[in-house]
Amino acid sequence: MTVATRSPGTHGPRVRSGQKAPRRPVNWGRVVAWAALIVLLIVTIFPFYWMLRTSLSNNRALAAEAGSPLPADLTLGAFERVLGMATTEEALAEGGSGASVNFWLYLRNSIVVATVVTIGQVFFCAMAAYAFARLRWPGRDKVFFLFLTALMVPPIFTTLPNFILIRDLGLLNTFAGIVLPTLFMTPFAVFFLRQFFVGLSREIEEAAMIDGAGHARIFFRLIIPMAAAPITTLSILTYINAWNDYMWPLLVGQEENVRVLTVALGVFRSQTPQGSPDWAGLMAATLIAALPVMILFAVLGRRVVNSIGFSGIK
Amino acid sequence: MATQVVPKRAAKASGAVSGRRRRFGDLRVALVFLFPAALGFTVFYLWPTLRGFYLSLTEFSLLGDAEFVGLANFERLIGDPLFWNSLRVTVLYVVINIGVQTVVALALAVLMHRLTTSVTIRGLVLLPYLVANVVVALVWFWMLDYQLGVVNQILDWIGLGRISFFGSETWAIPTIALVNVWRHMGYTALLIFAGLQMIPKYVYEASAIDGASEWRMFWSVTLPLLRPIMALVLILSVIGSFQIFDTVAVTTSGGPVDATRVIYFYIFELAFERFDFGYAAAISVVLFLILGGVAIAQLRMLRAGESDLS
C-alpha cells in the first residue's frame, strides 16, 4: 500500500512549471486497479439489489419495465403474497399463482433447525475438543485422526445410508430427522475448536485444579469463557451452514410443518407456472430466506471476516 | 500434571494404583466429554460409511431387504452412458468453475491487499457466500431469464442478441459454473488474502526500492510466495466443486437433455426418484475414489511447493 504511491510522488511534480503548489500526478495504475476492484464489487452487490428491486415490483408490470433499474409499479404485494397475507384475488391481480404459501411457517422452521443444530453441535464439539486437547488418555490421537478422516468422505456417500436410517427410525418429516445427523458433531467443528483449546494456557487450569475444581467446572468456567471468540465464530458459521443446507432437508423434511426455507424456495419455484412465473413473489421469498443471515452477518460479521484464513485447516 | 491432583477421588472410586492411573490418564473423564460427539460420529459418519460400501454391493429399492449382488452394480456402471455423461459434465463444470474462480479470486485478493485494508469491503465481498446456494441459483435464474432477465435485456440493448443461458445445451453448464463463481469468489479471495498477509511487507518494500513495478512485483514476488497457499485453496475448492447439486436441482434439474446431469444429481435421482439405492451407492463409491485421488494428487503438488515460504 505504501509502496504503490512512491515513485511518481517524489519525482513528478517538481519538473512541472511551478505556478501552483506541487500536485501529485495521477497514478494511472492505481486508478485502473481501483476501477477493477469497484467493478468486482458492483458485480458482487448488483444481484442483491436486483432481488430487492424485483421483490418490490408488481409482477404484472415487470414485463413492460424489464430493464428499468427501479421497481416496476412499486408495491409490497409480493411480500404479502408469499407471507400468506394476501387473498387469492389480490395475488392473482398482481400476477401471483394464487397457490397458498406461507413463508412465516418456513421461516420458523429454518430458525428452529438452525438454532438447535448450532447449539447442539457447538456444545458437543466443544466437549469433544476439550477431551482431545486438554485431557490425556490412551489412543487419544488415533481417535482424533479417525474423526478427521470423516472430512474426506463426500457428504452424498453418507447421505444415502443416513436417509435409510432416519426412515427406519420413523423420523421422516420430523425436526429430529432433519437435525440429528449434524446435531452431535461435524469433524470440522471438533477440529476447529481443538486447535484453539490446545493453545490455551495450562497455568490457570492447574491453579483451578489445586483449588479443587473438577473437569466440568474447568470446562464451563475456564475453557468456554477463554475460548469465547472462536466459539462465537464457529457458532456463526454453523448457523449459516445449517440455514443454507438444502439436500438433506429436501430428503427428510418435505412436509409443510417442517419444511425449511431453502426447500420451500425449491417448491415455490417448481410450482410457479412456466409461462408467466411469479418473479416478484419468488424474489420476495428469496429475500426473506437471505435476510436473516445477512442481518446476522452485519451484526457479527467482522469477526467472521477476520477469522477466515488457514487457522482451521493447517 | 493435572493427573497429580485429581487421583484422590479417582483412586477411591476404582482402587487404581498410580501406575495404572498414569497409563489410563483422564480416560474416564474423557469418555464423558467425548460421548455425544462419539455417538454422532459412529451413528452418522462411521456406520453409514461402512454401510455405503456394503450397499454398493447390493440391490436395494428401499422396500424389503437389500439383496447382495456382488460387483454387478459396478459392471453395470461401466456400460452406463448416463454415468459417463454425468462424469464428463461434472468435470467440465469443475474445470470452468475452478479455472475462472481461481483467477478472479486471486485478482480480487491482490487488489484488496494492495489497495485497501477496509474490513467493510472484505465483508461485502463475502456476502454472496453467506447466502444459500438455492437463493443464489434463483436470483441468477431470474437475472438470466431469456425473456425478462436483466442480463438479456442488456445483451439485447448492446446488440449481442439474447442467450438462453439455462435452456441451451452449450450454455447451461458454463452458466451454472459462473453463477457459482459469483457465490464463491469472495470467500476464495479472502482465503488467498489471508495467505497474502503472511508475506512479509519488507519483501515488497525491498523490491520497490529496486524499482520493480506493481505488475512485476505480482509476478516475481506475490505469485511465487503464494504458491503453497494457492495449492491448498485449490484442493478445498476442487473437492467442493465436485459436489455441485443445489444449483442444478433448483434451476435445470439435469436438463436440457442431459447437459447438466452432474454426478451428484445423478446419484440423487437414482436413489430418491428411481429408488435404485444399490446402484446409487456404487456411483458414490466411485465418486469417493475420484475425490480421494484428486486430494492425493493435489497434496503432492502442495508438498512440492512448501519449500517456498519457509
From TrEMBL, chain A:
InterPro entries: MetI-like, MetI-like_sf
Compartment list: Cell membrane
Transmembrane regions: 31-52, 111-132, 144-166, 178-197, 218-240, 279-300
Cellular component GO terms held in the UniProt record: plasma membrane
Membrane topology summary: Multi-pass membrane protein
Domain ABC transmembrane type-1: 107-300
Stretch list, region Disordered: 1-22
GO BP annotation list: transmembrane transport
Keywords linked to the UniProt accession: Cell membrane, Membrane, Transmembrane, Transmembrane helix, Transport
Highest taxon of source: Bacteria
Pfam hit, one: BPD_transp_1
Assigned protein family: Belongs to the binding-protein-dependent transport system permease family.
Stated name of the protein: Carbohydrate ABC transporter permease
UniProtKB/TrEMBL annotation, chain B:
Keyword Transport: yes
Pfam families, sorted: BPD_transp_1
A GO cellular component entry from the record: plasma membrane
InterPro entries in UniProt: ABC_transporter_permease, MetI-like, MetI-like_sf
Protein name from the UniProt record: Sugar ABC transporter permease
Topology in membrane: Multi-pass membrane protein
SUPFAM superfamilies reported in the protein's UniProt record: MetI-like
Family as reported in the entry's similarity comment: Belongs to the binding-protein-dependent transport system permease family.
TM helices/strands, residue ranges: 29-47, 91-112, 124-143, 225-245, 277-297
Location(s), subcellular: Cell membrane
Gene3D superfamilies, A to Z: MetI-like
Listed PROSITE patterns: ABC_TM1
Keywords noted in UniProt: Cell membrane, Membrane, Transmembrane, Transmembrane helix, Transport
GO biological process assignments: transmembrane transport
Superkingdom of origin: Bacteria
Tagged with keyword ATP-binding: no
Domain ABC transmembrane type-1: 83-298
